[in-house]
Design goal:
CATH class: Mainly Alpha
Largest sheet: none
Structural class: mainly alpha
Distance between the termini: 7 Å
Order of helices and strands: HHHHHHHHHHHHHHHHHHH
CATH superfamily: Amino acid/polyamine transporter I
Length: 507
């Protein structure tokens, strides 16, 4: 394939794509809702023990393998071996299939908030279908449309992802600037008092136990997930050995600091007891409640009447609906392509039917993308045809994907130890100068994510005796891992097990 520079990602475009893949604006009001200011130490812990060191590992990997098309598969394959790499990558890819099913139906909630100022999706109906069936139909149309547009090349993907990244950034700017205006106007008095006790104890009575706090720690760690998804974009990046690690570094620092700062900002204009203690406030709508409250508070500061301030609050909530819709749209564009690209272009092409490995003129594995689309659509249609009664099954599928999506993070951290020890690999960018230090941080990252996964699996059984949910979460990585093991073992029996892959032969 020609090394066409057309459509290469710039530093800014890369950073914005990372933002849409990793930074979840809704995590901020949800964190404050669950833990108040006491969420901040846990987010700092997650950044220090997981996200920032992991980001620098990804930067080293990306710089070293800048010409590789297979992303995380190539990184792990060259560092450890083919079987290890394939199992980790396939598990990760399979979990994103489930993610796409979930998002294709839930993305309409922020759109509804934009249009109506509230979540009206429960009342939507097309052709006499129920609301869940209607969302399924919209989800099918959405997945087909995104697949079609993504197949046109990186320009389409980067443009949409960049717009999503811009709106995520703007939402945070509005949050921080608005919070500071309210704070200054109120004589430097925060709506939620700032003292040591607030940083150690949650105002939410449901989060007073050790078990609940540990559950939030898992939430804080997983809020940083998704960085490995951009691994498949290294070969699509301008001056990759410089631009990619720089983009990772900037994004990691801004995201790590941004989460904690933004949670603090929420408390400057939101009193937990007055605004968030109502039983009507939930994880699903708290983002809109918080941002609406910001609009109302700003209206008061600007001397508007109570009704005008309320209207201002509604429009703030609508804007966040727009920002969240575009952010999810940008993430979908990135993730409908990047995991599949890493699986198809990185792994031995003989594993897959020949047509799946074909690359179109835009550099996209278009046939594989449509096969992926069919798989996602088939799952959605199953729910539609059963009148939405299979929603419980979909919930379980999502549970299967939750843990499976994060285990490849542990695979990559372990692979990084082998990567650092292999002196034959050229490493243009080095953050961890000492192999020993690199190993220690890799172990810390692995242990942190491992603990989060173990707790996530056991939590339903411990808290509510829901052994079925625990079983499905455990089944996810086992089932996906066994499928991957079968595929790669079958390949090695047929073609031998030497670790020289044929990704360079893909046409």
């Amino acid at each position: 394939m020609s090394k066409n520079k057309k459509g290469k990602l710039t530093l800014v475009a890369l950073i914005l794509m990372i933002f849409t893949s990793v930074f979840g604006f809704t995590n901020i009001p949800r964190a404050f809702f669950l833990m108040g200011y006491s969420a901040i130490p846990w987010y700092i812990f997650g950044a220090i023990c997981f996200f920032i060191p992991y980001a620098f590992m990804m930067a080293e990997f990306g710089s070293a393998f800048k010409e590789e098309k297979g992303g995380i598969y190539s990184w792990m394959q060259h560092s450890v071996g083919r079987k290890f790499a394939f199992i980790g990558t396939f598990m990760w890819f399979a979990s994103y299939i489930v993610w796409m099913v979930s998002v294709s139906s839930s993305i309409w909630v922020p759109l509804s908030n934009l249009i109506f100022g509230a979540d009206k999706t429960g009342t939507w109906s097309l052709f006499g279908l129920s609301s869940s069936q209607t969302l399924g139909v919209l989800g099918v149309i959405f997945v087909i449309l995104i697949t079609f547009l993504s197949s046109k090349g990186m320009n389409s993907i980067s443009k949409v992802a960049s717009v999503g990244g811009i709106f995520v950034t703007s939402a945070n700017v509005i949050l921080i600037v608005g919070a500071l205006i309210v704070f200054f106007a109120n004589g430097f008095k925060a709506a939620q008092p700032i003292n040591l006790a607030q940083f150690t104890n949650s105002p939410n009575p449901a989060y007073g136990s050790i078990l609940a706090v540990l559950g939030f720690l898992v939430f804080a760690i997983f809020a940083y997930g998704g960085l490995e998804a951009v691994g498949g974009l290294v070969d699509q990046t301008e001056n990759a050995n410089i631009t990619f690690p720089r983009g990772i570094k900037i994004s990691a620092i801004v995201i790590g600091v941004g989460y904690s700062l933004a949670i603090l900002m929420v408390g400057l204009f939101t009193n937990w007891q007055a605004v968030l203690s109502s039983p009507d406030v939930s994880m699903a709508n708290v983002a809109y409640v918080v941002i609406k409250n910001l609009g109302v508070q700003l209206g008061d500061v600007f001397g508007l009447s109570a009704s005008a301030a309320e209207i201002m609050g509604v429009w703030f909530a609508r804007y966040i609906g727009l920002a969240m819709f575009l952010a999810l749209l940008g993430a979908f564009f990135t993730l409908i392509y990047s995991p599949l690209k890493q699986l198809i272009e990185g792994t031995p092409k003989e594993i897959w039917p020949e047509k799946w490995t074909k690359i179109n003129d835009n550099g996209m594995p278009v046939n594989a993308m449509w096969i992926q689309c069919i798989a996602v659509v088939a799952i959605i249609i199953a729910a539609v045809l059963t009148g939405g009664k299979s929603s419980k099954l979909l919930d379980y599928l999502i549970l299967m994907g939750n843990v499976a999506m994060t285990i490849p993070t542990m695979f990559l951290a372990v692979a990084f130890i082998y990567f650092k020890k292999n002196d034959s690999i050229n490493k243009p960018f080095i953050f961890f100068n000492s192999k020993k230090v690199a190993t220690i941080w890799a172990i810390i990252v692995t242990a942190t994510v491992g603990f989060a996964n173990i707790f996530t699996i056991l939590q339903p059984a411990i808290e509510s005796k829901d052994y079925i949910s625990t079983g499905f979460q455990l089944a996810g990585p086992i089932v996906f891992g066994l499928i991957a093991f079968f595929l790669i073992t079958r390949y090695e029996k047929k073609y031998g097990n030497n670790d020289i892959d044929s990704q360079d032969k893909i046409a």
